[in-house]
Amino acid sequence: MGECPALDTAGRDIHGQAAALRAIGPAVKVELPGGVHVWSINSASVIKQCLMDPRVTKSARNHWPDFIEGRIPRDWELISWIAMDNMVTAYGQDLRRLRRLIGPAFLPKRVESIRPKVVEFTEMLLGGLAAAEPGGVVDLRAAFCYPLPLLVVAELIGMDQAAIDKTTSVMMMMVDTTVTPEQAQAVLAGWRGAMIDFIASKRENPGEDITSDLIAARDDETGSKLSEDELIDTIFAILGAGSETTINFFDNAITQLLTHRDQLDLVLSGKSSWEDVIEETLRVQAPLANLPLRYAAEDLEVEGGITIPKGDPILVNFAAYGRDPQLHPDNPEGFDITREDKSHLTFGRGAHYCLGAGIARSVAAIGLSTLFDRFPKLDLAVTVDELVPLTSFIMNGHQSLPVRLTEAASAAA
């Protein structure tokens, strides 16, 4: 196979690296931080196979020999992504049990109940932007893309400002793939400690929120409930998945619209919908680029005559899926909200499909439509080439999003 290429830990060109790996093959051995070798899955067909095949799992404690036998140290740079004990990393009967316990917390009524709060938070943040001097430059990632999803997910899980402050810095370090082993260990300890304190406070003061629901949840089939570790790790996963991915979605969607004014005009004129914008953004700029990790529970045969041996770890390259020319032969790297096929796998597929997909789409539609209603002539304050990527091969976004504010339209208009 030749030399094993290393993923760029700084994530400087996620799409360029994905294309280069796809050119080598649908499944390619790559090196992660710490010298850990995994299979990067780069073609749409094999990505779909890995998400649906029961021989592929997400449980390191059941199916990754290097982890089971202690060859993956506790200070490995990506340890927080594999050491969790929740639905994300569960397998078989445990996964089915956890979905029965957690699924009711994400019924459609939850999407509808949170909508008024999403509108309230959006209007509050845009009101602050409207007070800025017209023509002034604002970091929209910091002022809008970041706080809106965080406010929404905090509302959903019943987290107050003090708890938010304790967890956000930890989440930012978790997605930074340039951290040192010492920092990685601190991240793992930090988010567990923050979650323990938060859950203890919810036990004392339950409310109408997901955390309280999960503390009280019981499995009708077995009578079991979430263990303490499962509860801690599940709430943190909801917080991270509900905020980080949506933050980067807003960042990417706004960037695409401001660099494709013809596409923005289609939406503002009513010729295309915000749903078109959301799905095309998720296709061409997947907010979650590479998700650590999955594992072959048995030898896995994939296209190209490749066999992934039992026990080998797998890295699904979501950024590669939506841009695969075999899936989207017509300008796969172009942003076109009018294209008929906007297939993507941002929310996963199969047993690990994201339970919060409906909430995420609702937040995205409300946030984008309200932003551009208030600031229809919003513009980038730098060229797109000057936007600096996140230092991550896991998340796909920018460190900041400088925009020039135009005079705001009336909130009542």
TrEMBL record:
Transmembrane segments: none annotated. The keyword Oxidoreductase applies. InterPro entries: Cyt_P450, Cyt_P450_B, Cyt_P450_CS, Cyt_P450_sf. It comes from the Bacteria. The keyword ATP-binding does not apply. Coiled coil: none annotated. Pfam families: p450. One of its GO terms (molecular function) is heme binding. Keywords: Heme, Iron, Metal-binding, Monooxygenase, Oxidoreductase. Gene3D superfamilies: Cytochrome P450 (1.10.630.10). PANTHER family: CYTOCHROME P450 YJIB-RELATED, P450, PUTATIVE (EUROFUNG)-RELATED. Belongs to the cytochrome P450 family. This is Cytochrome P450. It comes from Actinophytocola oryzae.
